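Session log. Operator J.P. requested a structure for one protein chain; no other inputs attached. Running the standard single-chain path with token output.
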Amino acid sequence: MGGCDSILSIDIGTTRIKAGLVDCNTLEITGRGSVSTPVSYPRKGWSEQDPEELWRAIVRAASAALEGFEASRVSGVIFSTYLAGVVLLDRDNYELTPIITWLDERAHGLPRELFSGVLKVSGYNLLHLVDLLRVTGGAPSKTGKDPLSKMVWLRENMPDLFTKAHSIGTLKTWVLAKTAGARLVSPDDAHLTWLADTRGGRAVWSPRLARRYGIPLEKLPRIAGPTDVAGGLVSSAARDLGLPEGIPVIVGAGDIASAAVGSGALADGEYHIYVGTSSWIGVHSSRRLLDVGHYIGSLLSAKPGEYLVIGEQEIAGGMIDWILDATGMDYRAVEDINSIPPGSEGLIATPWLYGERTPIDDPHAKGVIIGLTLRHTKKHLIKAALEGVALNIAWAMKHMVRLAGKPKMLRGVGGGFRLQALANIIASVLNHTIEVASQPEMAGVRGAAALAASSLKKTSIEYETVKVPISWRAEPDPDASRMYKELLQIYEEIYARLKVLFRRLSVYDHFTPVFD
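Structure written below.
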């Protein structure tokens, strides 16, 4: 095994950066920092980040994590990054555009040829869709959120900058260029561009797909493994971060793959549930699984040769935040709802505040509070919000299980699992024990650190993730589970009965997203 002391692991979220100083041998987080990062919405449907502001936030978070620690003991740096961001870089790695975040929808309906033609299935050109599914295992949505759509938009609307660009990169490409001078992308990030052939558990750029959609192959960054060393920390980044120049910068993975590693659920049938502002369910698989009808797909995982089957949901903890804000309550109230019986005395709240993906893929879906009566209190509303998040997860889990099999184990990660009341409700709704990881909100930081430790010590990822600590187990309540099984049927019927009205209401929707 190679030598390794501590790792600076940085998780770049859309609006928050979490940095952790992680012990290379125990994965204990010994220092931490958290900094919010502003997102600008210059036009309707646009979502951008200023690279200089983002870098300053990274430096502040890293400085907080490193406070009081001897910099010479840091053995390496690694980043977990949100997926589907796009930025143009010139020959000197200077940013020609802001970072276009995953939320951005300016490229709605692009590439046009994918959504046009006589033969269509679910709005897609049949021939294009079949080819994309065969080669990449998926296809960009019509929302414009996927990198391919954004690349096409840049080519059409900023042709001079597009031509000048040396690299069309993701957020991962940008941060590795900034810190290691390398233009790289991790396999999961490359997978989500829908320009890579991902058969056989690896990603290789497809010249044919790049040519079809007008993306110059030579402008795409090189695909490197999550445990590969991108390069040594360049002097400018070393100076800003207060670290020795030349220490290894490891490629790492995207936020979902990093959190999956940080959950410790890597074996067959071991699921993890992430609950933050949004939520997702994930399980590793040796096969590329897909359920187009319920928006469940597979990305290459951080585990070599395997895929991560994912069902992603747009809003989870964001619903709880919204209810607390609307009622003038804070998070202390969440742990004070035990007096409210399961089912909130007939009150149901749906967390579709930003549309929904799994299992309905409907951007028009809206949040609903149904069953409200004079006997209901603020506590009822809070418990209904928690139950709505849990029922939504259970709705997605039904389709995940049909595709990937029953869970042998469930791990809980993400800041939502800091709420014991929420964890217990999710366990009861799913009727399954959930092992809650220690410091669940730091799963991305710990998972990235595990990848770095594997790289620097020349060990397997599985060897490192055995060390992921479990803080407690949320056990299902049998009586509550029986009630939630009935409520889930009602919950699903709410959408079935209201989806036409949701679409009609969308005519009046001028929503600009704000995430905390």
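Operator note: The chain is about 35% helix and 20% strand.
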